[in-house]
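Narrative of activities, Objective 1.

The group set out to show that a structural description can be obtained from nothing but a protein's sequence at a throughput compatible with the screening campaign. Below is one input-output pair from the validation batch, recorded exactly as produced.
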Amino acid sequence: MRLTGKKVIALVDEEFEDLELWYPVHRVREEGAEVHLAGEKKGKTYIGKYGVPAEAEYSFDELDSSNYDGILVPGGWAPDKLRRYPKVLELVKEMHADRKPIGQICHAGWVLISAKILDGVTVTSTPGIRDDMENAGAIWKDEAVVVDGHIISARRPPDLPPYGKAFCDALAEK
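Output recorded for this entry:
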């Protein structure tokens, strides 16, 4: 299993897009990586848009990016909440500075926008935030998955298979 020994943060908050959280989490775990779900409050159960729960194993404040190899940011409405936590932005900025894989899908681009790491980066997202991405300096493409260095982005749930593979590939290469 090529990701054995790798550790990944998966961010959670209320109204995450259920598939956009759980599909990549399971995909990364299937390849041997350890994934820690992190929310504002450790032990809190967050509920996805379609009712699937996710319990935060760690609070954001407990995490140190130097102990992790990558981070997954789900879509849904959670990104609008996640981008308001200074610790989330700090983790994303540190992962970016260390060129560790950052996976974002759908509305998750909002977190990367707020972390101010998209200037000149080629990405995709749900078309609904295309203007936001471009206004943050990103080069937006309407493609299932876009990989620009360590930033892996996808549009929506139908893109999950190639997104999961691309994130795992980036994690294996790091």
